[in-house]
Design a protein that fits this description.
The structure holds two protein chains of two kinds. The radius of gyration of chain A is 28 Å and the shape is globular. In chain A, β22, α13 and β23 form a beta-alpha-beta unit. By secondary structure, chain A is of the alpha+beta class. The mean pLDDT of chain A is 96. Chain A contains 15 helices and 29 strands. In chain A, strands 3-5-1-13-10-11-12 form a seven-stranded mixed β-sheet. In chain A, strands 7-17-16-15-8 form a five-stranded mixed β-sheet. A four-stranded mixed β-sheet of chain A has the order 23-22-21-27, with helices on one face. Chain B is of the alpha+beta class. In chain B, 29% of the residues lie in helices and 25% in strands. Chain B is built from ten helices and 14 strands. Chain B starts with 6 loop residues before the first strand and ends with a helix. The mean pLDDT of chain B is 96. Classes of the chains: A alpha+beta, B alpha+beta. Chains A and B meet through α2 of A and α10 of B.
């Protein structure tokens, strides 16, 4: 058997179907009697709803908030002190607070007909001033997104670690930095198919999601249904990026609708909905001051950071995760002794934010790196010299930084050295001094970061949001023919988990990866999990699969030794075979004994058989820290502002 | 993003197409490459009763080189021009413009006539054909009429077609061998619509001194005699960006950055034309 274990070059198992166009995404699902839904969405960012006119011929096909008896709003509360709660009604009533907010749900035989009905519904809206700027929104005189709050701030946080120690530094630089709002655009948008089975008394929700178990918990809360009455299935998912790590009002609406109407219903997000009404991220404002000595040593960082959180707190990550992340990761990979950071998570009339890849990292990295560049300029030093002066050194690892992040390992200066090795900096400086013939300006940029992943219980318990990851579980089950099923609660939407988790199992059990089936994305057949987010799957689900496979190995040894008529401690296990000094049995023989010929088993055989569900959590759950250094040469066209990456 | 319910016809003869246009009470849209109309239908920005697909009309795919001009049927695609499948009378100018339009997938289907009648101010042909001094050949029930492209495009997304007319072809005058052409498009991303377009054609033997500033939220600014931008001269070195800036101000472009991008586009087109 060719090497298939961890680190082996292995064709992706899932590609056989995905590359042949045989994947099954939510929009591919066909159920008998399926009808399509189109939503009437708010065309205004902020308005009172004074009325909704539904043409009489469509009154049985259009549903508004008034119809949704017993459906609770989406609430994503944070336990951080002072957090203000937003109630996101799944169909708006009273007020709309963002463009694209759902106001009415229209159902018909086809999506086109549903859109015809939606176009005939008339909204009577009284426009209110749109709160579009997070800094103005913080001011006292601003209009309010949520009236009863008294202001527009979801949450303020404050941390001060000896900032006064930095005040006597000879260099002080201040920068005001803004990052533009981003919206995620996975190839496959969101989509929901919901159906009700009266036989099972079960709602089945097919949804393009990263965290099916969390969606199920959210649906249970909003619909008042027991978990046992809800099954969430995420089939093939075409890209996640955090965009699919959220409980959608559409999921709640369609769940209610299928129970009301008795037939399956479907909503497939189109690109217009994705771009205008879908989740956003990363709109930050920094007022940041760096203190340093003349030799470039960073003495302290003082920052006021504002994050535009949009209109509502999304479930489960909440409206404050991004700003809270800003405060905790702004120091980056640097070692300094004075720090102060105040953050505001501000409500505006925009789409709610949710955590997009490396939550807040890009903005934070941009801010701290520009400050280091400013210090370098002020000190008359090369930017890399200032960075070398301040990076956490390998001999300091593991290192607890100023915000108590536990950097587990790494050689950050080496990463920077390797990046710099690709450039001839003195030659570039000389070329800059000469100037370009075409009038463009050359620039050299550096950026270094370290990134926490696989955040564990202690980290998330501190945020106090609806979701805290605990032990990640996996079920390993040997099948009667000696194959292996792995059931995990995380989901795969491009990460190759069907391949890589099989490789982990191969590493331990030696079962051919072609005979290992990785089952994901279905709450009915996988262990509960917070799902796929925060670069956690390989650490957490990989650890769980390894743990479960080790347990299977122990039990297989016991059965195998019995079949070989030797003691369990006298057998070895390799290449999927149990061997004694003279003979061997395969996993197939062992599986056959357990499932088909139990009369061959020892009397004291482990009653769990060849199936084990084991949880995994690293001993220290503060997360892993990866890191990288980037360097770039760019040419800027000063007349048009265009930037070209040269190297 | 589903269109409204509409009727669809794919006539085999031009007269049949003209006949279908004749009912003024029906909202009719002509479909050629569909690269703009498709999304507009799906976004319900247009809600026609009838879509007339003209891609079966062979007459609209013709390319005819005359003594002093080239006639290209409305359904000639950007890719036909880019790949040289149709003749050229512009010393390669049209080929270069075509190659810079959107993405190859769009160029494969998108048509010269569709782009011009759609009259998006940021589209390449709207500015380029005006700079080339081209004419639109308009076909109606009574026959054809020719309209200069600068008059054919009457505003943003507006053209001079009557309800019963369609664009049959575009006639492009032939350049002399010494013609000087420059075309510069400002786009931040490959394939996106232009933020600004500058185009210049100095064809001295023919006495042509044209310039266009395009992508201006209205019909392009066409200077049939562009010498005013060169201090009254025909010397490229005399290009006066302040004169261009003043013209942009006069058509209501208030944002200084916007004006700068447009004057830079024109200045770079001039530099190209001058061969510098």
């Amino acid at each position: 058997m060719a090497e298939q274990g961890v680190g082996a070059r292995h064709l992706r198992k899932e590609d056989d179907r995905l590359m042949r166009g045989r994947g099954e995404f939510v929009a591919d699902i066909r159920l008998a009697g399926l009808q399509d839904v189109a939503f009437v969405r708010s065309p205004l960012a902020h308005a009172w709803i004074r009325g909704i006119s539904i043409p009489p011929q469509y009154k049985d096909s259009v549903f508004t908030a008034a119809d949704l008896d017993g459906v609770k709003p989406i609430r994503a509360v944070s336990g951080l002190p002072g957090f203000k709660i937003s109630e996101q009604l799944v169909l708006a009533t009273g007020k709309v607070r963002q463009v694209g907010e759902l106001v009415a749900m229209c159902v018909a035989r086809t999506r086109a007909q549903a859109e015809d009905i939606a176009a005939s519904v008339e909204l009577h809206l009284e426009e209110l001033p749109a709160i579009h700027d997070m800094l103005q929104a913080r001011e006292k005189k601003s209009a309010l997104v949520h009236e009863h709050w008294g202001d527009n701030v979801f949450l303020e946080t404050f941390v001060d670690v000896n900032i006064e120690k930095a005040f006597d530094a000879p260099i002080k630089v201040t920068r005001e930095i803004r990052t533009a709002r981003q919206s995620m655009a996975p190839l496959e948008g969101r989509g929901v198919v919901a159906s009700w089975s009266s036989r099972l008394e079960q709602l089945t929700v097919y949804t393009s999601a990263q965290m099916p178990h969390i969606n199920r918990t959210g649906l249970s809360e909003c619909l008042g249904l027991d978990h046992g009455n809800i099954r969430v299935i995420s089939p093939d998912v075409g890209g996640g990026f955090g965009y699919k790590g959220i409980l959608l009002p559409e999921e709640v609406c369609l769940s209610w609708l299928t129970m009301r109407r008795g037939h399956p219903v479907r909503w497939i997000e189109d690109r217009r909905e994705n771009l205008s009404a879908g989740a956003n991220c990363r709109e930050h404002h920094y007022l940041i001051t760096g203190y340093a000595d003349r030799d470039g040593r960073l003495r302290g960082v003082d920052c006021e950071a504002t994050v535009d959180s949009g209109a509502y707190s999304s479930y489960p990550f909440s409206a404050c995760l991004e700003a809270a992340q800003v405060a905790s990761i702004l120091p980056g990979p640097y070692d300094f002794e004075a720090y102060r950071c105040k953050t505001w998570s501000v409500a505006t009339n925009k789409c709610p934010i949710l955590p997009y890849r490396g939550v807040a990292r890009t903005g934070v990295c941009f801010a701290i790196e520009l400050v280091l560049d400013a210090i370098a300029r002020e000190a008359g030093l090369e930017p890399h010299v200032v960075r070398f002066k301040n990076l956490v050194r390998p001999e300091q690892m593991p290192f607890d930084n100023i915000t108590r992040k536990h950097f587990d390992s790494g050689d950050y200066p080496e990463a920077l050295r390797r990046a710099l090795a690709h450039f001839d900096l003195p030659a570039l400086r000389a070329r800059q001094a000469r100037g370009e013939r075409d009038g463009r300006l050359l620039g050299f940029g550096l950026s270094i970061y370290c990134e926490q992943a696989a955040h564990g219980t202690s980290v998330y318990a501190a945020w106090g949001i609806p979701m805290v990851p605990g032990h990640e579980q996996a079920t390993a089950r040997v099948t009667p023919d000696g194959g292996l099923e792995l059931r995990v609660g995380v989901h795969s939407h491009g990460q190759s988990l069907e391949t890589t988790l099989a490789q982990v199992a191969f590493e331990i059990l030696g079962i051919d990866t072609a005979k290992i089936k990785v089952i994901l994305g279905d709450t009915a057949v996988t262990p509960y999990s917070t799902g796929t987010w925060g670069s956690r799957c390989m650490v957490m689900a990989g650890g769980a699969v390894a743990s479960a496979c080790r347990e299977i190995e122990t039990r297989a040894r016991q059965i195998g030794a019995s079949l070989l008529q030797v003691k369990a401690e006298d057998v070895t296990f390799s290449d999927g075979k149990i061997m004694s000094a003279t003979s061997e049995v395969s996993m197939q023989d062992i599986a056959r004994a357990w499932y088909l010929r139990p009369q061959d088993l020892p009397v004291n055989v482990h009653r769990g058989g060849l199936e084990a569900t084991i949880g995994y959590k690293p001993e220290r759950d503060s997360g892993t820290f990866s890191y990288a250094a980037h360097a770039v040469t760019v040419a800027v066209d000063p007349e048009l502002g265009h930037v070209e990456i040269l190297d | 993003m589903k269109p409204v319910n509409f009727a669809y016809e794919r006539p085999r003869h031009l007269d049949e197409a003209i006949g279908l246009l004749g009912d003024e009470s029906a909202q009719t849209k002509i479909l050629a490459g569909g690269q703009s109309l498709g999304p507009m239908l799906n976004l319900r920005l247009v809600q026609p009763d009838l879509v007339i697909d003209i891609t079966a009309l062979e007459h609209l795919k013709r390319a005819e080189k005359m003594q002093d001009s080239l006639v290209l049927g409305a359904c000639v695609t950007h890719a036909d021009i880019e790949d040289g499948r149709v003749p050229d009378v512009t010393n390669g100018a049209m080929r270069a413009v075509a190659a810079g339009i959107a993405y190859r997938a769009v160029r494969n289907r998108g048509t010269l006539g569709g782009s011009l009648t759609n009259a998006d101010p940021s589209a390449d042909w709207v500015s380029a054909l005006a700079a080339l001094g081209a004419e639109a050949v308009v076909r109606g029930p009574g026959g054809t009429r020719n309209v200069a492209v600068d008059n054919f495009v009457t505003g943003a997304l507006e053209n001079a077609l009557g309800f019963d007319e369609l664009l049959e072809a575009v006639r492009v005058p032939a350049h002399s061998s010494s013609a000087q052409w420059g075309y510069y498009k400002v786009s931040r991303k490959t394939g996106e619509y232009a933020h600004a377009i500058g185009a210049v054609l100095f064809d001295r033997p023919r006495g042509v001194f044209r310039a266009v500033i395009g992508a201006v939220e209205r019909k392009p600014l066409v200077l049939a005699d562009a010498r005013v931008l060169f201090g009254g001269s025909t010397n490229f070195a005399q290009f006066d960006s302040r004169a261009a800036d003043a013209m942009l101000q006069s058509i209501g472009m208030r944002d200084a950055l916007d004006r700068q991008i447009h004057t830079v586009a024109l200045a770079r087109a001039v530099r190209q034309a001058s061969g510098a």
